[in-house]
C-alpha cells in the first residue's frame, strides 16, 4: 500500500510538472505577443471637453503658435484624428463668449485677443492700438506679401523708387523678414512676410489674401513716381 501511494504521488507530481511547463510556455507565448503589440504606436483619445482644456492650457502657457505636429506629440494622439477633432473643438471654442480665440496660422494654432476687446487691452498695457504704416510702407508691404519671396531690386522695379527705408521699417515691425538669398550674381536678400503679419491682418496664410489686380500695381508705380517728384521739388525749394 505504501508503495502504491508513493507511485500515485510521483505520478501526480509528474503531471503537475507538465502543467507548470505548459503554464511557462503559455506565458512565454503571451510575452512574445505583448512584445509584438508594444512595437505599434499606442495612441490616446480624448473627449472634446478634455481636448479643449488641454489645448487652451498649452497655447496659453507657451504664448506662441504651436504646430499640429507638436500638439499631437504632446497629447500622444494620431495626427489625422487630432486634426479632425480640432475642427470641432476650435469652432466651438471660438463661438463661446470669450475674450480670446484660437486662430490658425498656416497650420499652427495660437491664442489671441478678440478684436472687439483690443481697445480696452491697449489702455491697460499702454501701447498703441495698431502699427502706424505710412502709404509708402504699406505699399511696400503689399508688394512683398503678393510677390514673396522677392528681392529689394525687384520691389524697387515695381515701385520705381528706393525702398530701403520702407523695408527696414517693416523688419522693425516684424512684418517682414529675410527668407533667403537669390541664386544670382551678388546673391541679393529675398524678403517675405512673417507670422506676425498673418496675425495683424487676420489671415491664416498668404493664400487667403484678397486678389490684387495688375492695375493696382500700376497705381503703386504712379504714386511712387509722384512721391519721388514731390521729394525732389521740396529739396530744390529748400536749396533756393
From TrEMBL:
Region feature (Disordered): 1-41
Biological process (GO), any one: cell division
Biased composition (Basic and acidic residues): 12-26
UniProt entry tagged with the keyword Cytoplasm: yes
Coiled coil: none
Bias type Acidic residues, positions: 30-40
Keywords associated with the record: Cell cycle, Cell division, Chromosome partition, Cytoplasm
Matches recorded under Pfam families: SMC_ScpB
PANTHER family: SEGREGATION AND CONDENSATION PROTEIN B
Protein name in UniProt: SMC-Scp complex subunit ScpB
Gene: scpB
